[in-house]
Specification:
It is built from 11 helices and 7 strands. By secondary structure, the protein is of the alpha/beta class. The protein folds into 2 domains: 2-73, no CATH class; 81-237, Vaccinia Virus protein VP39 (Rossmann fold), CATH 3.40.50. Strands 3-2-1-4-5-7-6 form a 7-stranded mixed β-sheet. The termini are far apart.
C-alpha cells in the first residue's frame, strides 16, 4: 500500500510538473514545522516546483499523499450542505487538486470542479480516477470562472474554496455563479479570516446580490505568516 500511494502521488506530480521533483524526509520535515501542512496541498506543490529535478523518496510521497486529502477532511464537514440526495449537483470554482471535491464525491455528491489551470485539472482528474475509479468520481473541467460552460440553474450549490480572493473581477464571476445556481441553491465561500477582512469579501458577495444564511468557523490555519480561523460562509439569493 505505501508503494501504491507513492506511485499515485508521483503520477499526480508528473501531471502538474512534467518532471520529478526533489523531496526528501528532511525537507518535508522543514515544511511541516513551518506550517506547510496548514497551507494545503496546492501550496505545498507550488513550493515543490521551486526545488528542482531529482529523486523522490517513498516516505516523503506518502506524507504528500496525506496532504492531498487533508483539505477535504478539514473543510468538508464545515460546508453545511444539504444531504447529497437533497442538494443537487455541486460546482466548485477554482477546484485545484480536488481534495474537497473527492471528499464530497465519496459521500454521494454529484460534483464538478472547474479550474483555469489545465495541468491542475489533469492532476485532479488523475487523482480522482486512481482513488475512486471511473464511477462516482468528481469531474474536472478547464474553464474560466467568468464563462462557465453550464446552463442556467444547473447546480444546487456553488463553492469557492480559498479561490474567490484570487479572482480579479469578482462581481462578474459572482454574477456568473449566480447564473448557474438554482433559484433555491446555496453559494458557499470559504477563506481564512484574514483574507475575508483584508479583501472585504463579505461586502463584495453581498454586493453581488447574495444574503448571508449561515457561517462555520473552523480551526485556525496559517496564511502568509498570519494565523486566523478558516471561515465558511453560506449565502442565498438576496
Amino acid at each position: 500500500m505505501p508503494t501504491e500511494r507513492a506511485d499515485l502521488v508521483l503520477d499526480c506530480l508528473k501531471a502538474v510538473t512534467a518532471r520529478k521533483v526533489s523531496l526528501d524526509e528532511a525537507s518535508l520535515g522543514v515544511l511541516l514545522r513551518r506550517g506547510a501542512k496548514k497551507l494545503g496541498a496546492w501550496m505545498l506543490l507550488r513550493m515543490l516546483l521551486a526545488v528542482g529535478p531529482g529523486p523522490v523518496t517513498v516516505t516523503a510521497l506518502e506524507n504528500l499523499f496525506d496532504f492531498a486529502f487533508e483539505k477535504g477532511e478539514f473543510v468538508g464537514p464545515g460546508l453545511g450542505l444539504p444531504e447529497a440526495g437533497r442538494c443537487g449537483p455541486v460546482l466548485s470554482v477554482g477546484s485545484g487538486l480536488g481534495q474537497v471535491e473527492l471528499w464530497l464525491a465519496e459521500r454521494g455528491f454529484d460534483v464538478t470542479g472547474v479550474d483555469a489551470d489545465e495541468d491542475m485539472v489533469a492532476a485532479a482528474s488523475l487523482l480522482a480516477e486512481r482513488v475512486l475509479g471511473k464511477q462516482d468520481r468528481p469531474s474536472f473541467v478547464v474553464s474560466r470562472a467568468s464563462t462557465l460552460p453550464f446552463p442556467d440553474g444547473t447546480f444546487g450549490a456553488v463553492l469557492f474554496l480559498s479561490s474567490l480572493h484570487e479572482i480579479k473581477d469578482r462581481l462578474a464571476v459572482l454574477a456568473e455563479a449566480g447564473r448557474v445556481l438554482a433559484p433555491d441553491g446555496v453559494l458557499v465561500v470559504a477563506e481564512d479570516g484574514t483574507t475575508w477582512e483584508r479583501q472585504d469579501l463579505l461586502r463584495e458577495v453581498e454586493g453581488a446580490g447574495f444574503a448571508p444564511s449561515g457561517e462555520t468557523r473552523l480551526p485556525e490555519i496559517l496564511d502568509h505568516g498570519v494565523v486566523s480561523p478558516y471561515i465558511v460562509r453560506r449565502f442565498r439569493r438576496g
